[in-house]
Each structure stands twice: as structure tokens, then as C-alpha cells.
Amino acid sequence: MNYTTLFNQIIAYANRGGSIEFAASIPYFIEMGQQKIWKELNTTGFQKTTQLKKFQVNNATIEKPADWQETISIIYGSEDNFFINNVVLFPRSYEFCINYWPNVNLSDAANPPLFYSDYQPGQENVSPYKYYLIVPTPDKAYNYQITYIGRPNLITNENQTNILTDYYPDLLFYAAFLEALIYLKDDQRMPVYTKLYQESLTSANNLTKDRYIDRSVKRDIG
Hints:
The structure is a single chain. This protein is an alpha+beta fold. The protein folds into two domains: about 100 residues, no CATH class; about 90 residues, no CATH class. The chain contains six helices and nine strands. β6, α3 and β7 form a beta-alpha-beta unit. α1 packs across α2, α1 crosses α5 and α5 runs antiparallel to α6. The chain is elongated, with a radius of gyration of 22 Å.
């Protein structure tokens, strides 16, 4: 499957071959279908790892990857070698972190970093959860690496394929076609394709859920 075949498949299944207005809306259906899948599909296919970076001394914030969607782990090592004295940070809520280490502008050599939380600084025009808060505040320029679930590139007329077209074509079609059925107010077929989508999603998740669970660090939202 690619973008063009998906586009034509939606037209064929919708029986709207002569509708210019419907055809003009299909890119939106495909985009929304992909957004839906990204939120609901757990797969190592979206898993990414950043290049090694260094904490800044007395700076408790680090920026998330631009395509971040969910954190799997944050691991740091020594100043000289990431692979020496590895520490896996524990996820906690922002409230927990700020109570555990109130003065985030100061570090203590006896208290190296232990926890992280999603962090939204009090600035305008900054995306929610663009940063992590690291506590205790780093006392050295430790090497660190983030493993996370990233957003794959959208398929478009210019970008014909991605991981969804290559590995989950049925799931992608059902997700996009459901958006088309909502647009068409086709209540009769909605239950059928909702069921097909859910079955395809469950099948995909069952195939991949154990691949990274032992490395996953689930965020503590409390």
C-alpha cells in the first residue's frame, strides 16, 4: 500500500467516485486516521533513541525530542562514558519532583539525579510537555540518552509510504475509512468498520506489546 492506493481505496469503498468534494477531503481522512493510530498503537516500530547528550550542571531541565510522543526511559552514565555506572531515572509527577527537590537551581554531589517528570515552564508559546524536569538537579555533566515513542512521518501525496503502509495497511485503511464514514454520516457501516479497526488494532498490539515492556518505564501520573 501507498498513499495513492489508499486514496483510491477510500473512494472505491465509499462509492463516491464522482464527488470532487469528497475526494478533496480524503487527505484529511488519511491524516486523522494516522493520528488516531499513533495514539492507540503500541509498537517498537515507533521506538527511537536519541544521540548521547550531556546534562548541564545546575540545570534541572532538558528538552524532549521534537517528535516525542511517549517516554520509554531516560538513562545516564558517567561524565566520561555513558556505559559506566548507568542509572535509569524513575518517572514521577511534577508535584512529586518539585517537593522532593524544591530548589532546582542547585545541585548536590551527594544527591545525583533519580527522577524525571514532564515539565511545562511558565512561558508563552511553549508547547505543553516540551521539557523534562530532572531531580535532584544534575551535579555533573553526565552523559544521557532518551528512548521514546516518536511520531512517524505522515504519508501524503509527496511522501507515499511510512511504517503504517509497510506493516499495518489494513489498520491504516480502517482508521482512515472510519473518518470518511463520519464525514458521510454513514451510520449503517460505522459499527462494521469500527469492529474491523478494533480487531486490527488489537492484533497489532498483541504482536508487539512484549517487545519493549521490560525496558519501558511507565509514567507515574499521581
